[in-house]
Design a protein that fits this description.
Layout (H helix, E strand, L loop, with lengths): L11 H15 L3 H14 L6 H6 L2 H8 L5 H14 L3 H9 L2 H7 L6 H14 L13 H10 L5 H14 L2 H9 L20
Helix pairs in contact: 1-2, 2-5, 4-5, 5-8, 8-10, 9-10, 9-11
Length: 198
């Protein structure tokens, strides 16, 4: 287990967050990276930290971590981004930094928590009724949500249903339903669910 960063108690919140970022960047231990990223994701839940997290480029750290092979790092990174989507400046940054395709890729994770955070982050980046950012409700994403709406997991099924009802137009849902299930280009079927038979 990684040790807490050595921080002068008088440095305050920014200093502590800086120590976490530095530890993440310098450590060679995967366990320490996971623990630090989990801590940063938890700090991303508190709006008092948003300015510091932007200043320390933690949004980029989370976005970069979405491409890691380590599923635990991906899970904590998408959880952090999900927490940060509550803030307008963070949403705009994630959208402008090309975060949507990285988040969409998380929809195929074997980790249900990662998938739930990815769906929630997509919802946080959009606005009910859709239209503001078409990539959030592109046909492959809507097809993926349709598959999730049939999931055995009540959490995933309910979240996908909310996404479809609140963020997609009826015509987007109808169009996605009209395409074959395997035509969701760019989004592989999640490894935790068996593909549906045509």
């Amino acid at each position: 287990m990684a040790q807490k960063p050595k921080v002068d108690p008088h440095v305050g919140r920014l200093g502590y967050l800086q120590a976490l970022v530095t530890e993440f960047q310098e450590t060679q231990s995967q366990d320490a990276k996971e623990q630090v990223l989990a801590n940063l994701a938890n700090f991303a839940y508190d709006p008092a930290n948003y300015q510091y997290l932007r200043q320390l480029q933690v949004l980029d750290l989370f976005l970069d971590s979405l491409s890691e092979e380590n599923e635990t790092l991906v899970e904590f990174a998408i959880g952090g981004l999900c927490n940060l989507c509550a803030d307008r400046a963070n949403r705009e940054y994630i959208l402008q930094a090309g975060g949507v395709p990285l988040i969409v890729n998380c929809l195929s994770s074997p980790s249900e928590e990662t998938v739930l955070s990815a769906v929630t982050a997509l919802m946080g980046l959009g606005s009910p009724g859709g239209g503001s950012h078409p990539e959030l409700t592109a046909r492959p994403v809507v097809q993926c949500m349709l598959r999730f709406s049939l999931s055995a997991s009540a959490r995933l099924r309910n979240l996908a249903q909310i996404f479809l009802e609140d963020f997609c137009s009826p015509s987007q849902v109808a169009e996605a339903r009209s395409w074959r299930a395997d035509a969701a280009l760019g989004i592989p079927l999640p490894r935790t669910e068996a593909p549906q038979q045509p």
